[in-house]
Amino acid sequence: MSRRHGATEVGGDADGAAASREPAALLRFDVVERCAHWANALLFAVLVATALPLYFPAVEGAVGRRALVAEIHLWAGLAWPVPLCVSLAGPWGAQLRQDLRRLNRWSGEELRWLRSAGRLHVAGERADKFNPGQKLNAAFTAGVVVVMLVSGSILKWFAAFPLSWRTGATFVHDLLAWLVVVVVAGHVLFAVTHPQSLRSMVTGRIDATWARRHAGRWAAERLGPAREASAERAAAERTAAAGPTAPPTTEPAR
Amino acid sequence: MPEPSEADRGRARASARRAFRSWWPYPGGVEDPATLPLPPPSEVPRVAVGRRVVLAMAALGALGVAVGATVQRVVGDVLGSGLGGFLPGGNRFRIYTITGSFPVVEPADYRLRVTGLVQHPIVLTLDDLLAMPRTRLVKDFQCVTGWRVPAVHWEGVRLGDILDLVGVTPPAVALSFYSYDGADSESLTLDQARLSDVIVAYSMLGAPITTEHGGPVRLYVAPMYGYKSLKWLSEIRVVDRVDPGFWERNGYAVNAWVGASNGRDDAPIE
Asked: Is A111 close to B47, i.e. CB distance below 8 A?
């Protein structure tokens, strides 16, 4: 048995006979991506925790030490982009860089999903490694880091900017903080209601059957075209969905 | 309840082991990236939406910084002091502390010491203040960082009345104020202190001043930026020179006229 089939036992409830020739699990996030994700999450938690007393008088009353809290908030904010940048910067970031390209690029079907405001269903069997909702979340998060970093810097070093910018930056910083907390709450809700996905951000592994079902095009890329029942199901859905949608790639990735 | 059998315990242990193992990071996984070359992403029609989202957010953010001050004013007027009390853009108070916590002073225990270059040093209780002629003001509170809460109701005693009570003696030219928090201090010249809209306040927003707003008694210096309106006022000392207060030692103007100091052009408090 080849090395990459060696951990079949670790993967858990694979599809029995149908999957006997393929690994039971795929590597969804490598260790660099997982570290970047959790470092990012930790910094975000620190930012929210320190933002509460800075924003709500009632919390400020209970916590006090505003100067210290503001200092922690400032440094956590400046550190926020660091895990991602470090992860991207070296040879260790190959998988992350490729995943960012995947997150950035949208297929025609995914764009139609976006235009339909999420009403159009994108079949998991045709989906890329990330679904359009995840792509949108990733782009939004990246935008949040940029805007919060810039508006926060204007708040901190206000003397260098026109006066009205300070008020404007406060407005933007506060408004986006509310928005990102709502979006991250949704992200966490999805995570706890999809334990397989959450676990893959801890262990890196995702079941091959899950990948076939929710990220079919990616699974086909890694494992070759889907076979038997799942292939027939995918084909049936392709026919049903007929139209300009590109079929999943059929050539094995290697 | 029957004792769990050895087999049951074994099954439970195995199940716990499985649960633990399934969450244990296993970097090698099934595919080892070192041995598995990364294939190119599938070739299908693709548009760089992610980058556009980030750029659009950056543009919106820049727009927000540029026009935020105006939007904030409009939103604040619309929301009023209800929702605006905690939503961004609202006309809300931000509470700043310079120490670890708010000093909590019970109204019954409150004492205001008036000392220094005076004929009769005195200690006033809250009841003493309440018994003095009452001044009511409805005026904005403007912070040097840009936020402004419009039309706040204030009640208290004119600082000038307190000075008359104790009798200022030469060579007095200024006042130093001290806070129950043990750290904050402020200053005013005698001329500034005798303005009719400079009060020792015991009521704010239509109620006794809360602890977070500096209760039971604070200063309200209407024509100046908020940092002049010292909270938890504990002592007024009449002195022979202006001794810059906490915020002034941290770079803010000593004569903190709204719209004419700290490089700001806010509308003066009317």
From this structure: yes
H or E element, residue B142: strand B135-142
Structural domains of chain B, with CATH? 51-92 (no CATH), 94-249 (3.90.420.10)
CATH superfamily, region A24-241? Transmembrane di-heme cytochromes, Chain C (1.20.950.20)
Among B269, B137, B154, residue whose Cα is nearest residue B201: B154
- Show the CA angle centred on residue A245, arms to residues A210 and A24, nearest 5°: 15
Q: Smallest Cβ distance to A105: which of B47, B93, B211?
A: B47
Whether chain A has a CB inside 8 Å of the CB on B47: the answer is yes
Q: Where are the beta strands (DSSP E) in A13-130?
A: 25-27, 105-107
On whether any CB of chain A is under 8 Å from the CB of B179, the answer is no
Mutation for testing the A interface, residue in B17, B18, B49 having most A CBs under 10 Å? B49
Other Cβ atoms within 10 Å of A114 Cβ, number: 17
Q: Chain B window 96-135: which residues touch A at a Cβ cutoff of 8 Å?
A: 96-102
Q: Using CA atoms, how far apart are residues A60 and A69, in angstroms rounded to an integer?
A: 10
Which residue of B lies nearest to A25 if distances are taken between CA atoms? B30
- Answer yes or no: do B101 and A171 touch at CB < 8 A: no
Q: Please list the pLDDT of chain A residue by residue as tens digits (254 residues).
A: 333 433 333 444 444 444 445 667 888 998 999 999 999 999 999 999 999 988 887 787 677 777 788 899 999 999 999 999 999 998 888 889 989 988 998 888 888 888 888 777 777 777 888 988 999 999 999 999 999 999 999 988 877 887 778 778 888 898 899 999 999 999 999 999 999 899 999 988 888 888 888 888 888 888 877 765 555 555 555 665 554 444 444 444 43
Give the whole-angstrom CA distance, residue A210 versus residue A233.
15
Top residue of A170, A223, A245 to mutate, by most chain B CBs within 10 Å, is: A170
The Cα A72–Cα B157 span in angstroms is 40
A7 touches chain B (CB under 8 A): yes
